[in-house]
Amino acid sequence: MSCQLSAISKFQDISSLHRFLFPTTSKEGTPTGDHVSQTKSSKMDSPERDEMDNWDQDWGFDESPVTPEKEKEIFGGNDGDSTLNNWLQKCILSVSPTNDVVAAAYGHKISVLTQKWDPRKRGEEIDSNLTPVWESEIGVDEKETITALLCLPLASQKRSTHGGPDWTCIIVGFSSGYVRMYSQTGVLLLSQLLHLEKVERLKCRTYAPPRFLGLAEIHDELLIMYTRAIVSIDGFSLIQSLRACCNQVARATASGTENMLQPPPLAYKKWSLGEQDKVSDYVACGVVCANPFDQLKAASMLGGVKATVKTSPPAMNVFMTAGTGPYVGFFYAIDGITQPILSEVAIAMANKIKSALLSAASGWLGFGGKAKEEKEKPPKIEPATPLPLRFGLPDRRRAGDVIMLSPCNNYAATTDSFGRVILIDVQRGMAVRMWKGYRDAQIGWIEVKEENAEPEKNPDHYRLAQFLIIYAPRRGILEVWLAAHGPRVAAFNVSKYCFLICPCYGMLGLNNVTSRGIKSRTFQCALIDPSGVIKTVDIPFHLALSDKSSKRARDLHLLKKLKAYLKESAADTESLEETIRDLLLDMKIASIAHQGIERILSTKYLPVSLMQNLVKACIKRLDSRNNLDLDSRIMLKFCKSQRSLLALYSSVTTLNSAEVETKKLSDHEILTCVLHQTSQEAHAILTLLEQHNLLTAAANPSKQSARVKFQEDVEPLGATSFLHAFSYRTLFSNEDNTSSGDSIAPASSSSKFLFSGCLHGRCQAQELVAIIQKSNIPPEQLMSLLLQYWLSTSKHTVDMMANLYELVKSITALTGESKVIIVLKMRNLCSQSDNIRAVYLAVVTCRAVAVNALGLNGPFKSIGEPATKAADTSADSQEWEAVTVDMELWEVLVRQCEDALAIATLLSIQSDSEGSQQHTITVSVARLLLSGKGSIPEVVARYIVQQRLNPASLFYSFTTEVTREDEEEEEAEGMESEYEASQVEKTKLKGAKKQDQLDELRRRFPHNLQNDFLLSNCCWEYAVLWNKEPDETWSLELSLDFLRLVQNAVLRQGVSSLLWHMFMKKRSSSAAHLMEKVGKTPKDRLCRKEVGMNDISLISFISLCADFMEIIMDANCEAHEVPVYNLEPAWQKVEGPTSLVELAIDQKATNYGLLRLHFHLFKVMSAVLSLGVKSVKVLSLFDNKGRAALFKELHAHPLLPSQKVEPALIAARKNFLCQVITAAVGTIEPPAEMDQSVISVTSTSSAALFKRQRSLYPTAFKWPQVVQMLARDFGLDLDYFKRHHVRELYSYGHDKLGEEVMSSVNDHEEMGVQLLTIGGQRVAWEIFKRDIDRNFQHLAGMSTSLTRWLKDLEPEALHFPGVPLSRTVTLLEQAATRLIEDSRHHSLAQELMEKTKTLAHFTTHNQS
């Protein structure tokens, strides 16, 4: 059976369709488009048509075949006249997937044709014709044209339809953006404007059950593509609305009324495709749930390292687009598709029916007539949700035209402007194949199910093949290709003016119940030729198969049968071995038999004896042959290696079943007698291990041995798992080599199976090594397995070192010339492991083996004592021993392991605070050696930052002391339980352990852990932590605390320069420019956008920046020598990146003037942020030179500003500094209004009041001092700001504080005038504002000049005018003493003081 074209339908008269759609290209005498429209519409729509029809009337059926000559006559030209013959490719065509309705449109015209049975063609293959039932011009105006068309069949709800559609909806898209839905007879059912753009394409996705368990169903959905947007309408709501509208039309037709209920608007989702330049076509790939790896990859690509990942991958609606910029785009809608609730649709329909009934009743009763005359409101257009372009296939010059998705949703085919057809893998997003030379091609897909399958299988689990259909109109050929990399299976010569159509949907309204036994579509891909015949492609499944050899097919069948038999059989039976042997030995091709033996060896329930028998049978069969091919030789070597491994498995299983021998030697005796350590060395090793075990067990009780053992921990290793731990090398340089070709894959379970029994004393090392040697595993791989198991856990004890010593010694004895390679690999494995305790025990054991091999069993240099005692031990020795280079390397490695074990002990001490629950820091010898000189202080600094330790804990005894206030509260309240007391004791104990271990590390690393080096690294690590979370400014504050303690000024300057360059310059610059832009404290949203932190954290950050500049300025003024970075003797071979200390030392010296300039800026910014000063441009307070020098590198030497600036800038600076003083004074709470008796009592405690307010309001006293400093550096008058400070204090009613500050004012005359003004404002407020009727008599006793002067004052300028008159008298006395006696102000002050005393006396008398 071959591929063929089969006719499935035919037009009754396709020339009439051509004349209707293209009247200008028809022959003379052909009716025009308008006449055809009128006549056809009148005939189709007139009710008398049914009465005029009778059986005797000629129905116009044309039975003559369409010949090529007639085809030319129909289309009015020859084949070369493309303008006449390619009309099918110009118009818009849509064929219903059930092959019962065809719709064609062009411009304003549309024609709908349906299948009608022709009695004259009874018995023929095609006994019906497509006859037009509706032809008309639609559209509101001439500008509105048809741009998209879709025939959508609706599934019937009746059981007697035998799977046929109920009726077919004609969906039409217009250039105005309207989508209108008609019945197949032309009745308008729905019309809705969803988007203000041209409708480009209409596509539909109907229900499809999942092929396999776990896959998602495909639900009904209508997709509308606009120029820049995609609209998705849920199929459930759409079919409910269409059925309701259809029923409404039927009722209106039956009743003869024209009142139509307005249907409810369709619920839809809209996405915009703005990130692609142009979209020509699209496909919806459905809802996809990504795997965890793709989820993490997408999150990291979109959000970076700070991206958050959900626990479960989200469901994503995937859209693929074809166009330009990029050529193919992948859009992901994360929210997926939510099905609307039926109750919502029912409620909406009920509301519409209710409103329609009321309107109809109002028309009958004679009221409400104006409602019809009201203009309809314009439809509300919902905005589109922007859909991000996840990725695409970029090709700047290529423009995609059409994209078509395969039925299985795994491939998509596209056509482009270069005449290429490209096949794209949807899941991987890659182009996998390209066809050239297909200009103006049309594509489609056909899915073929495997035929002649076994009847007992589930029909949904049959194999499927996908074929790509390519129609090349310029060559007149239709090709069928096997996807994705298959050959061309068929090709047909067709007309150059055909139209290929591929509806990728079926009937709308099916579900998992109604879809059973129903064929939702009768064809998948069809070709409409100019003669009016619709043909489909029939493809047999066997064209997808590529088996060229019957022998291979037979062996594949046997392999498939073997796999099925192994799967069905769950246990070993008597006939199992015989059946498997027959199937395996019956295979002729070695490569397939190789797959069979691999499948047998991977079956878990098969016993080892059965596997051994089958492997031996395969070996015997292959050995009996001569002249083996490559595949047979590979299989033979594989079987021999598996035979050796199975024998090894059986022998080791027998050894592991023996009982454990009792311990005969103590730990000290094992170290001295077996490992040849001296007594002093053994004591040092045991002491170091005991200290590590004590601190580790106390710090991490959860890491102790678990009491509960699960079945996985107790169950022995199976034979299949043991074999899978070895990977077979299939290529050999010498085919006669009989050694095994196995290479060890990382498998801790296999190494545990091999060596755990010997290490626990179940067998002797020599016996185990002898058995392993028979398997031909190289000694290098045996040593790797042994060390992998030893280093995989830290539960090994000292008594197991004796067995480890024997194993290492025996395996080393097996090596010949490769002994040096094994020793090097042993050191590399030990140095790379982060299980430091196990590494230390292994290194001590391996060194003992090396000593024994070299015959150096005498005493040698101590390795277990601390570094401070090494010199004493070497001094006591009387003679020196000649040690080889290998022994020296082992000695250095032992010393490094001791130091690393001390570091690991510190890292294991974790605190219980929530902030410190982070990942555990691990170290290894190799990592410390390859991380540069600063690796050790960097690791310790990371631990300090992780534990949130402050600088005091590094230099003083770490104790958790309770303050006196806390002690009083504890005494008052008492401890709630004994548990709280135990937690406090544990915290103290852990703090002491941390401090002790830090001291131990300082003794071991006197050079690496110098105070300045450790403080610098702590400063840097806290800054890194702050940079990750900028809102947590406490970490930056701790970083500066560590920086202050660095004693060496050169190092402090260098670290500060690095901090400025890496972390602080960019954020501070952004903050300064943001404040310059807004002129006030920025809002939280702007702070997060520009600076990357909230508005509260910004205040603290700018304050810390000012402190940071002050630290650098102090370091700049000091002079110290450049520090020298030395290393300990055991760590001299460190290599890697440059350390932080070395980078800091290489930094250039800072510029003090530039530091001072930044200090001024940060103080100004801090004042604006802390005090809320408004209308201040922070950068505008500096001249051009200053603004240009800001935010440079601290070692730069730009032009710096001077004190000689423009008067406008001086005025702006004065205004700002005065605002700062005013805002600072305003932070003090204003005094309450008090009578004279209270004043007399409180006046005696002014000193205590001043001291108390200074402690309560530090801001009010700090910022005036900062203003004095800034005024001094800006070259402004300091006395001016002092007087302003005094004036503001008196204005707020803080007279005692004003008197304190007034003592530092130099210009007494000016100060007296200002005090006189404030006193006059207070008196004026008392007389004119407070009670003018009562105080009018005192006003009459004043002189005219004093009265006029008081009226000219503005008492509202005072912030707190209601100060008692007694304080005002004191104020006037202060003013009078500072004024010149002969001046006018002095006499005015004297008179005002006298009148104020009288007024005060009168007020006190009235109150009494």
What does this structure look like?
The chain contains 51 helices and 31 strands. It is of the alpha+beta class. The protein has five domains: 4-49 and 59-296 and 325-331 and 383-542, YVTN repeat-like/Quinoprotein amine dehydrogenase (Methylamine Dehydrogenase, Chain H); 547-650; 658-702 and 743-908, no CATH class; 914-967 and 980-1189, no CATH class; 1232-1407, no CATH class. It has a five-stranded mixed β-sheet with strand order 10-11-12-13-17. Strands 1-29-28-27 form a four-stranded antiparallel β-sheet, with no helix packed on it. Strand 8 and strand 9 (188-193) form a beta hairpin. The longest helix is centred in the last third of the chain and has 30 residues, at 1049-1078. The radius of gyration is 47 Å and the shape is flat. Residues 27-80, 336-348, 360-375, 702-714, 730-746, 858-882, 956-984 and 1234-1245 have low confidence and may be disordered. Residues 23-41 have a biased composition (Polar residues).
